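Handoff note, outgoing to incoming analyst
You'll be picking up this chain. Sequence as last confirmed:
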Amino acid sequence: MERKIAKQIHISEGTMFSIAVIAVCWFILFSPWTRPLVNFWWILSISSVLISILAGHFHPEWTLDLDVDKKNILIGTVLAGVLGIGCHVGSQFLVDWIPVLEIDLERIHLFYDDPVYYLLSILILFLMGASEEIFWRGYIQQVFSERWGANTGYVLTTLLFASMYVWSFNWMLIVGSLLLSMLWGGLCRLDSRWLSPVMLSHALLNVIVFVLFPI
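Most recent structure output, in case you need it:
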């Protein structure tokens, strides 16, 4: 009993520490006060590796949900394609409905627009998507669900994920993150084995909407 309680306390402290770390990293990446002072791609790559390490250290069990096979690769790829179309159609709908959001849409590319790092951006955005899913769906959502139940874990993780982008002060980015988090988290809520296709779809979607076919 003592060992079990000690492990729970350790995981709780590690989880709060991990969330604090990613909050600081994403603040540096997206806030108007720090963004001009750093190289976006370097900070993004370091942050992506760091949160993956934190997930592996504090919750190594996330790897049990990985199932990389042809079926999941196909599902993840198709899901990314559907979401890519949805992001383009949805963003255009929002801009037509609320024209002022066009400014936010244009500002999104200021985070990623750097032709010098075009090839690097593809690699890093792929890394970012996978690492975010490892952290949020593989680690945080699972820990929260074990602690407070699947529904509460899903809702808390979804809101936390979207809140990391608040410092961008970009409603298009925040709303988009919230909707995507609802979808990816919902799939993993239904079955944790969705983690593999969700990781792939997130990684591919980043490359699609930010590099290959910018929204």
